[in-house]
Amino acid sequence: MSFTILYAVLALFVLLIIFGVTYKIKGFQTAFIATGVAFIILALVLVGVIYAITSVMPN
């Protein structure tokens, strides 16, 4: 399996956990916002990791 597929599965699992816990504690609106923020952070981390991998590669 490629790194991107594994990361996507892990990110989906993390987003489901964040949504579920936040929904149970604070409600739907807060859970929706928290999941959106987490999604943006996970997307930025993926971009950073891909940049780090490609910057180490030789020309």
Structure report:
By secondary structure, the protein is mainly α. It has two helices and no strands. Helix 1 runs antiparallel to helix 2 (28-56). The longest helix is centred in the C-terminal third of the chain and has 29 residues, at 28-56.
Q: Shape, please?
A: elongated
Terminal Cα span: 25 Å
Number of DSSP strands? 0
Based on CA atoms alone, the radius of gyration comes out at 15 Å
Strand percentage lies at under 5%
Quaternary structure state of the chains depicted: single chain
Helix content: over 70%
- H and E order: HH
Largest sheet: none
Uncertain stretches: none
Number of helices: 2
Topology:
Layout: H1 3-26, H2 28-56
Task: Name some characteristics of this structure.
single chain, mainly alpha, elongated
What's the short story on this structure?
With 59 residues, the chain is mainly α. It contains 2 helices and no strands. Helix 1 runs antiparallel to helix 2 (28-56).
